[in-house]
C-alpha cells in the first residue's frame, strides 16, 4: 500500500463534505506532477486529507476506492480523477506549523513541494504523523 497526502481548500471542499458525501471524486488537479501521483494511486491506498489555506492541517484519512479515470471536470488534456472515501478523522489535527518544526519530518513533500496538491508520503512519515495525530487504524 502506498500513502499520500491530498490538499483541498476547506471553502471549496472540506473534510465534513467528504464525510457527508461518502465516496467523492478527487477532481480538478491541473499540475502534471500531482496528476502523475493520482495515476500512481491504487485501490486501498490511503491519503491524509489536508486543509490548505484555512487551517493548514491534516484533518482526516481517506482511501482510494477507484483508480485513475478521465477527470470529468477537464475540458481538454490528460487529466485524471480518483474516487476517495473517508476512513476516519484525525483525532488531533496535525498542523503545518508542527510539521515544519519537527526534525523527523524534514524533507516531507508537504514542505519541500508546498504547492503540490497530491504528494507521496513515505511509510515512515505516515506512521510518524499518525502518531502525532493519535490516529490508530
Oligomer: single chain
Strand order of the largest sheet: 2-5-4-3-1-6
Low-pLDDT segments? none
* Secondary-structure arrangement, i.e. CATH architecture: Roll
Structural class: alpha+beta
Number of helices: 5
Assign the CATH superfamily.
Answer: ph1033 like domains
CATH topology: ph1033 like fold
Total domain units: 1
The ordered H/E elements are EHEHEEEHHEH
Biggest sheet architecture: 6 strands, mixed
Describe this structure in words.
This protein has helices at residues 15-21, 32-40, 96-101, 109-112, 123-132; strands at residues 3-8, 23-26, 46-51, 57-70, 80-95, 118-121. The mean pLDDT is 96. It has 137 residues and is of the alpha+beta class. It has a six-stranded mixed sheet with strand order 2-5-4-3-1-6. The chain has a single domain, classed as Roll (ph1033 like fold), CATH 3.10.590.
Brief sketch in words of this structure:
The chain is 26% helix and 36% strand. By secondary structure, the chain is an alpha+beta fold. The protein has a 6-stranded mixed beta sheet.
